[in-house]
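Supplementary Methods, section 5.1.

A reviewer requested that the exact input to the structure prediction be made available. We therefore reproduce it here, unchanged from the version used in the analyses.
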Amino acid sequence: MLRIRGSIGDWPVDLTLEMDDGDWARLGAQLQVGKTEDVSAPAAKPLNQDDALWQIAKDLLRKAGQLSGPDLLEQLEGLTGSAASGKRLLVRLRHCADVKVVSGGDTPLYSWVEPA
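The structure derived from this sequence is encoded token-by-token as follows.
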């Protein structure tokens, strides 16, 4: 389930989308459309919603290249629909081998590092 809250002008928006594993897999695939894939490796399909969100979170940072902690957290919260889930993904990214985190003054800076 994906919940989107906010407003459009003066109109409040509270939208809930129910998605099954196939829907999440298609969404993840859409986010990888421009990504060059190794033809020798089988396409990885997210097994569940958490795996799909993790893949989308990594793709978000990979495509951006670099984001500040607050900007990345805001995007992750929007993706997951909750502050707690966004923070869990942020912590997971902090410990990911493909992510470099540098303390940049007031906020950390998250950078995607391509594997060698």
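Strands lie at 2-8, 11-17, 66-68, 99-104, 107-112. These observations are discussed further in the main text.
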